[in-house]
Amino acid sequence: xxELPEVETTRRGIEPYxxxxxxxxxxxxxxxxxxAIPKSIKQLKNQTINAVNRRGKYxxxxxxxxxxxxxxxxxxxxxxxxxxxxxxxxHDHVEMQLxxxxxxxxxxxxxxxxxxxxxxxxxxHSLLDKLGPEPLTDEFDAGHLIxxxxxxxxxxxxxxxxxxxxxxxxxxxxxxxxxxxGIRPGRAAGRITYAECSKLVEAIKIILQQSIDQGxxxxxxxVNSDGEPGYFKQSLFVYGKEGExxxxxxxxxxxxxxxxxxxxxxxxxxx
DNA sequence: ATCGCCTCCTGCGCGC
DNA sequence: TGCGCGCAGGAGGCGA
Length: 271
Prior knowledge:
Number of strands: 10
Mean pLDDT: 96
Distance between the termini: 28 Å
Radius of gyration: 20 Å
């Protein structure tokens, strides 16, 4: 489910409860996520959390001895519970009790997410070391995108969703950014001009930032660490709007499948 | 190397 | 009301 804005919303929500807190216990109810949770996750016990970072769609819970790497997949969420009587729900797979009384629960019905442990002595985890730049930093610019697209036949939408090129752009924001930039999602990446790359980079930054500002997008089940939805859905121009009038030109929004994912665009506004 | 297809899993909304 | 079907915010891995 979550793309970068939803993950960042989650990170910001849990950070105040986790920072400088000690993990007094960790309970795993379901070990089998996308990959099995390693037994070494138990090393989190009695560790104090120094930082709660994000890299792409991964949340990194950092301690002196190592870090927990959390990915929420399609349906995951992290909830903070302060009422000790709040019952565990179905699909609450992992619970972390904190020294300040808060309890964090990893909830993930589809179990496409993961929880991994990387000891401080180990090299950067292979999931993290090949990731492209963060979209909201200066490292992600038109020069980076033009270089990544040259001679590529893959559709531009698939390319910007590839985390080795740039992290954090998922299926909603890929369609939205391409609409804002006026580029058809199915165009071969190699045929995108420098000026278009420049527009697309700007569009990605603007849309992701706006969505973060509104707490992310809730289509059906995304909730932040307080259990509240995000409000960016009302700002979407094309995602999930096939057959509706384009807000810019009035023509009907089209839907097609690209890379096995639903894609939405306006044939008039996007060339 | 690059690309496209498959897969993991549960839940929900739709049409019949 | 019940069932079967298709689809869903991801992305690694595999075979062509």
